[in-house]
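Lecture 7, part B: from sequences to assemblies.

Below are the input chains for today's worked example.
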Amino acid sequence: MTAPTTSPCPTALRTGIASIPTGLLIGGRWREAVGGKVFEVENPATGEVLAAVADASPADGDAALAAAVAAQPSWARTAPRQRSEILRRAYDLVMARQDWLAEVMTSEMGKPLAEARGEVAYAAEFLRWFSEEAVRISGDHTTTGDGANRIIVTREPVGPCVLITPWNFPLAMGTRKIAPAVAAGCTMVLKPAPQTPLTSLALAVILQESGLPEGVLNVVNTTDAAAVVERWMASGKARKVSFTGSTGVGKVLLRQAAETVMRSSMELGGNAPFIVCADADLDTAVDGAMAAKMRNMGEACTAANRMYVHRDIAAAFSQRLAARMAALKVGNGLDDETEVGPLIDAAGRAKVQRLVDDALQRGATALTGGRLPDGPGYFYPPTVLADVSGDSELMTTEVFGPVAPVIPFDDEDEVITLANDTDWGLVGYLFTQDIDRAFDLSERLEVGMVGVNTGVVSNPAAPFGGVKQSGLGREGGKVGIDEFLEYKYLAVPRRKGH
Ligand code: NAP
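Predicted structure of the full complex, as structure tokens:
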């Protein structure tokens, strides 16, 4: 297995994929899994097998954590500028290979190339942002109230980290964790999702080329996540877990973290309300709905899951949205004209169809879509459901697909009650032209982020994260690095008589 050495990378996709190492990255070396076990990576648009990737056993996982633990002391002592420059080089390399990385991602995950290029740029921004933050880690210096002691507060890396990422944004969810960990001086074991290992492996190569020392980043792909990760969590050696994925798995990890009292950051599921007030600009609201619903084919934690539209404009909004959704070109993401790619796998698509069927049986009308297409690939048509009943299962379940359920409402108190009637609280969207209403309703929404007259909230400079069962902690922004740092306070008595 060899790493790509040329930049820019080959444009021929298959050549490009062939250049990605398929092993486990442990202690700076690419290795096979114990017993030579591998698993296959599939293109969800065609079913084509793209690669066979090493399938780590718990013993491989243990070796990876040992490498991270061994590298931690010297990595913690590196100069912030050195860590900063590694990240900055990685940013430059990711951007130089934007098209190639986008093709790899589209091949294994399905999103259209244009979106994949956008994700590469978004992911790269975390490398650049945290390269800038690495040299700004600061502490505090003060005196006790009685003037007898100095209080010196320093920041230290939390220690070896367990990073677990999902398949829906395979590059950005990686850099959103790796970059602050590198900036803070932490080592790490990364377990990517098994549907999308190639993007993570390509990123690991870039970080190696950028000068990241051996053992700082260890990459462990596996089809046995529960066993591999449980040992990391129980080891007492890993000091932090940062997870992005479903709320169910997040709760399992939090229980495990309790046993060794590990620092935990959780970016979990969502059930985003999208509220369109009667005074909203309809064009802006429909644009926002397209962005909030159709980004990543609806396979996003930030996806608008419930569209509450004031009754006076619900029909007009639904019709315009249905027209825009029906006009989208569905197809293989590698085709430049494709606007909507396939869903990730058969199980993901079956869940979407089940939720749509349930809503239709409870009285909703499909203005467009709603039926499974024939043919290969896990495609699902963009779908708008009007007059969705409040007891439909998709009101309480993350649909994770291109389905927009529209529910009319009559007054603000009613819509805030409906919006907050969920265990989740990641993001909400609000459309109104009245600034007082915008602030008032934003404050009443139980969420970590609000898009006001916009369907996009994600930005590396902003603190991303949720409340309630959508998670703990924030990624990005000024606070993103805090998740990887501990405080240490030195009590130093002042000399008496001076
Ligand atoms: P998932 O099933 O929870 O899986 C996420 C990751 O956890 C995968 O790498 C998975 O590997 C691993 N995993 C599963 N069981 C595990 C266990 N017992 N111990 C350790 N790791 C385990 O979620 P997903 O289906 O990949 O992703 C979709 C979910 O992620 C949605 O709920 C979405 O809202 C959420 N998400 C949240 C954010 C955010 O920032 N809040 C961003 C993106 C996605 P295996 O697949 O091998 O089990």
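Note for the exam: Residues 1-12 have pLDDT under 50 and may be disordered. Keep this in mind when comparing with the next example.
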